[in-house]
Design brief:
Elements lengths: L7 H8 L30 H16 L3 H13 L4 H10 L2 H7 L6 H9 L4 E2 L2 E2 L12 E3 L3 H9 L8 E4 L4 E4 L14 H7 L4
Antiparallel strand pairs: 1-2, 1-3, 3-5, 4-5
């Protein structure tokens, strides 16, 4: 299955705030659908809780099920806490770094900027949104929309990144830690969800 292209506010209403998916804010605070307002009365199963946590991660970072499973398997092979390593790998993707630097309003927009060749890494054009950024790499763009958004960006840039808003240039200073990730998700439930795969 390809990336999700459907209504984004519906997903936000169901799963909660996803800053990488959309900047829109839903008018209603209950899930969409015929049984939306009354669905809060039912007890959520253990499977549903884990599935929703996984879906939060998928929709926020715009990755497919196959990609997320690949990231989980790669995180399992690495030394350290699997959940934190998974989030670190997702957060160090080029599209996520471009979004965190304030060059794009959402990760989806950052993905499009990268795939259209508007972003360079260490002076080389990179058109792969899943490119894993490493410490010391410089991300730059000369595109007018990106430079304009970077200048007007009012959000907080995480401390593992440094940014020059006037030149639309950013640098990865160090690896991201769990406290610097702006997504409220329980990564242990995601690892438990994938424990049988």
């Amino acid at each position: 299955m390809a990336r999700y292209r459907g209504p984004r506010v519906k997903i936000v209403r169901r799963l909660g705030e996803l800053p990488g998916l959309t900047t829109k804010i839903p008018n209603r605070n209950y899930p969409a659908g015929q049984h939306g307002p009354s669905s809060g009365m039912t007890k959520m199963s253990q499977y549903r809780v884990r599935l929703q946590e996984k879906q939060k991660l998928r929709y926020n970072y715009g990755v497919s099920e196959k990609q997320l499973l690949s990231y989980v398997r790669r995180a399992r092979r690495m030394k350290g806490p699997t959940g934190e390593l998974l989030l670190q790998m997702l957060e160090m993707r080029l599209d996520a770094v471009v979004y965190r630097l304030g060059f794009a309003p959402t990760i989806r927009a950052a993905r499009q900027y990268v795939s259209h060749g508007l972003v360079t890494v260490n002076g080389q054009a990179v058109t792969i949104p899943s490119y894993q950024c490493s410490v010391g790499e410089v991300i730059k763009s000369n595109s007018a929309p990106i430079v304009e958004h970077a200048k007007t960006f009012g959000g907080v840039v995480p401390s593992h990144l440094s940014v020059d808003k006037n030149n639309a240039t950013g640098k990865v200073e160090r690896n991201v830690t769990r406290s610097q990730i702006g997504l409220t998700v329980n990564e242990l439930l995601i690892i438990e969800f994938y424990s049988r795969k």
